[in-house]
Amino acid sequence: MAEREEDRNAVLIEKIRQGELVEDPADMTDEYRENLIHLMMMEADSEIAGAFGYVPWIMKAPNPAEMLAVASIARDEVRHGRVVYKLLENLGVDVEDRVKQFDFTLRVGDQDYLGQQRAGQDQRVNIFYYPIDTWSDFIMFNVLMDRAAGHQLDDVVHCSYGPWRRVMDGIMKEETMHIAHGDTWLKRLGRDPATHDELQTTLNLWWPRVMNVFGRPKTRRNAIYQKWQLKVRDNDEVRQAFVDDVTKAIEAAGLQVPTWIPDWEQVPEEGQAAG
Ligand SMILES: [Fe+2]
Ligand SMILES: [Fe+2]
After folding, report:
1. Å from CA of 115 to ligand 1 middle
2. pLDDT top residue among 51 and 270
3. How many angstroms does the Cα of residue 178 sit away from the middle of ligand 2?
4. Which ligand is nearest to the CA of 168?
5. Domains of the chain and CATH, by start
6. 262 CA to middle of ligand 2, Å?
């Protein structure tokens, strides 16, 4: 006799609440599977788009040691993408067909502002649509986005899907090295009077972009993720943890943390307010 989906959901939620991990796709309900696939696709697409943004910098890095550092960071990101795509394949996603559909090198103009929107049909986190045009951009990406990803993936370490949780160890170790690479250069360029101002300008440009990757506070979607323990914190909590952490790195480099007003708190200019 077919169980009602509602009942299956309730049973699965209870199991998760008891601390059991989901291991077998056969134990998933439709709602669980759909949300899990969505989150893993966002990660996998972001890893690949991130890698492709780094690739040109293998050739443009300032010296051979840095060419190697960039190449190994790009390799790590492709590996992260591959690992998560493999998990998606195990859930029946046709990954090969999927990656053929998208252009992961797609980028917007350097002054374009996406807010919370994507520029393409893939599921990457939208900061990966912005171009890395300078070495300072590259460094800022390590400092800000590798770090932001690390904070977001902290939730995956505690998520209810066993196979995803277990690949996080290796991924997090590599992200920590990317962040350290960024922080070393941030200090070097931030403390050098010849490059300090350019670096601050680059930080100001990337700041709203990285703050937006965490999403709005208290969304309906986040509540669903938390219900299934696919995330364990609200978007705003993750953003705050990131800010506390990155502020130390920014200040150690003699730079200033830019101010940020979320799009959703901007007061509309007069005449723009909808009735
Ligand atoms: Fe990564
Ligand atoms: Fe990374």
Report:
1. 22
2. 51
3. 5
4. 1
5. 27-253 (1.20.1260.10)
6. 25
